[in-house]
Amino acid sequence: MYAEELRQSLLQKTQLFLQQDIAVSELTELREVLVFHEWNYHINFEPLISDYEYDQLYKKLEAIEAAHPELITPESPTQRVSLQVTEGQATVKHLTPMLSLANSYNAEDLEAFDESIKKLTGEAPDVKIKYCVEPKYDGGSVAFVYDSDKLLRASTRGNGIQGEVMTANARTLPSIPLSASFSKLGIKTVELRGEAVIRKDTFDKINAAREKNGQSIFANPRNAAAGGLRMKNPNETRQRGIEVFLFQMGYALDEAGADAIAQYDSHHERINLLSELGFRVPTIEKKYCEGIAEVISFIKEWDEKRDDYQYEIDGMVVKVDSYQLQEKCGSTQHHPRWAIAYKFKAKQATTQLIGIEYQIGKIGSVTPVAKLEPVALAGVTIGSVSLHNEEFISSKDLRIGDQVLVERAGDVIPYIVKSLPEYRDGSEQPVVFPAHCPSCGTALIKNEKEAAWRCTNFQCEAQRLQRLIFHVSKGAMDIDGFGKSYVELFYQKGWLNDLSDVYVLDYDAIATLEGFGAKSAQNLRTSIEKAKQNPIHRLLHSLSIHHLGKKASKLLGEQIEQVMDLQSWKTEDFMNIKDIGPVVAENVIAFFQDEENLAMIRRMEERGVNMLQTDDDKPVVLKADAPLSGKTILFTGSLQTMSRKEAQAMATDAGAKNISAVSSNLNVLVVGEKAGSKLKKAEALGSVEIMTEQAFLNLINE
Ligand code: IVH
Fold first, then answer.
1. Residues 429 and 483 both lie in one domain
2. How does residue 620 score in pLDDT terms, banded at 50, 70 and 90?
3. How many angstroms from the chain centroid is the CA of residue 192?
4. What is the Å distance from ligand 1's center to 247 Cα?
């Protein structure tokens, strides 16, 4: 990517820029230096300066840009995160359909694929077709369009024809250059495709942090990466540590709209080209193979070492290298005929079922969990796996002491495939599902329509603990920093008996606990104080009333002025709400007739928890009549009476959609002081309504 001479000059400039003040006229060079170090760090994995030095240069750039905002360009390293929210549900048509891949599972399948390639291309049976073999990354597919060297758009795969636009999020990904020198190769518009992934160790750190904060953990790096691409706030995308491997440059046009890459007639040349331009591609991971036998042995090598690889992969992709041959093969509606995915087998291991533990959930459901002789499988040690319910155990004829086959596919959650009766010696014991709750001894019951046995004692110790864990979690009261382990610790200490105790914790005592201290006790207090102001739909959901999920809680929150109103609600009141059924009605009525529950709610109220309907609880009013309904808007320059974020929120409330750039899609530009290039561009377009901050305020207050 960087020739030696350029590299030396950028290194020299790095030192100069670190040591002395940088002139405004050197702004472009400073940006080049930063982009060079970003490439060394994120793509080449060979940082040439320390993080501290990088930060110093970055700060110098920020300072110059703050003094000269008119010189800021969208490609500047400081512009990766914009304040603006992502484009929401906006979709875009891919320039060519993003096809899927056909699958193969063994050497015979690959040999058959090789034969079909020879038939389709007319090559002789003894010819060794050249293939490129790459890991099949298990993440989220993404497409990027660059136009005139600039990243123009990024989108998810979607249904293959249309994807969801996520440009603002993609701009935060350090492995995606904001600009690249395609024009030097005569390319004006190009569409690149790749896979967004999260390294296994980064994934573990993310989950550990989420668990600590009481957030739900991700099942696997794929979900974390694919979800990360679609975050509303680009800053959250940035924090996921997503990296992108590019594996296809299918479409590239020159200024005249003609194919600009015909001379690069092979997949490996095009991938090398992308690498040269500064993109992350499978470099050491891919192999150029001559003939299918080499492909098969390369895949075998990877099958053996895939657990040690830093990224989750679920197979390898075999691609005919020559584009001429690819064209002869063509594609079906679903997949190209010139490529095939080889899917690795799920990893399996045999181990012993030592016993079964029964875990009680927040509404009393009993989940059997198999305790296994710990066994290493696909990089993790497995000691316990969920058995879901009684039916699962009997359908697999599991017995205590059995040898069982455990499997872990691409996903992280392992499961028992079957028992292995051939190893039985007669000492195995049948599983007797408990008739009473292992925590409180209450007789378990089973509703015909449900798979789980349940403990009906609302005061059961195990249920109380689970309800507390749920109450503080992200999906319920969202008490930041109040993770499961803290709830368990405070519960053991007798500080938490029911949900209302969350709001009278003794922070001085917490500060003295091992691993705490005054700062973390204070942080917890701040989070709990904040949660007290939650809208009532969150509170309703956090009470763990059976079947009262998020949506039903929201619907109820819309209808009541205060939580205690539910005390007088009758079945017909619930039935008047579309989407609320009799089961929810019955359970909510039962909850609000129980004296202990009512006393708990009153204690919560006394301790400051909001019980009144908030604006957030009220039904969303359709904004068709709003003053900016259906318009796109952009704020530029410094605003005097409000922050940029506040202004954007007001615009959204007035029915507008905030966008980040001036283009023919922009309807309204609000200009603050020192507005620069955006104002000029909007004036030049002529189609944009330009208004002052005051005019904007007058309009939305109309
Ligand atoms: S090539 C037209 N190469 O696998 C064929 N795909 O199951 C384009 N994937 O949607 C795909 N790693 O998201 C290709 N090295 C690789 C890949 C790869 C992961 C994903 C891709 C595709 C899916 C198909």
1. no
2. low
3. 21
4. 8
Question: Tokens 């705490």 — which residue?
Answer: 516
Contact 272, 280 (CB under 8 A): no
Domain check: are 309 and 214 in the same one?
yes
Residue 100 CA to ligand 1 centre (angstroms):
7
Is residue 602 scored above 60 in pLDDT?
yes
What's the average model confidence in pLDDT over 581-594? 94
Residue 86 lies in a domain: no
**Is residue 590 a part of any domain in this protein?**
yes
Range of the domain at 153: 102-343
Same domain, 306 and 363: no
Statement to judge: residues 601 and 642 lie in one domain: no
The answer to whether the beta carbons of residues 470 and 362 sit under 8 Å apart is yes
Task: With both helix axes pointing from N to C terminus, report the angle between 51-67 and 27-42 in degrees, rounded to the nearest 10.
Answer: 150
Quick: pLDDT tens for 17-75: 998 899 999 999 999 999 999 888 887 777 788 877 898 899 999 999 999 988 988 88
Query: Does residue 378 register a pLDDT over 80?
Result: no
* Distance of CA 533 from the midpoint of ligand 1 (Å): 46
Of the residues 60, 136, 554, 657, only one is catalytic, namely 136
Overall domain count for the chain: 5
Pocket of ligand 1 contains residue 247 by CB under 6 Å: yes
Ligand 1: does its nearest atom lie under 6 Å from the Cβ of 137?
Answer: yes
Q: Is 220 found in the same domain as 108?
A: yes
676 and 644 inside one domain:
yes
Round the average pLDDT of the chain to a whole number and report it: 90
3-state secondary structure 80-119: CCCCCCCCCCCEEECCCCCCCCCEECCHHHHHHHHHHHHH
Please determine, for residue 405, whether its predicted confidence score (pLDDT) is greater than 80: yes
Q: Whose CA is nearest to atom 12 of ligand 1?
A: 136
Which of 103, 105, 136, 271 to probe ligand 1 with, by most ligand atoms within 8 A of CB? 136
Tell whether ligand 1 has an atom less than 6 A from the beta carbon of residue 476.
no
> Does residue 314 have its Cβ closer than 6 Å to ligand 1?
no
Does residue 617 sit within a domain?
no
If you search the block for the tokens 């059997």, which residue do you land on?
368
Q: Is 319 among the residues known to form the active site?
A: no
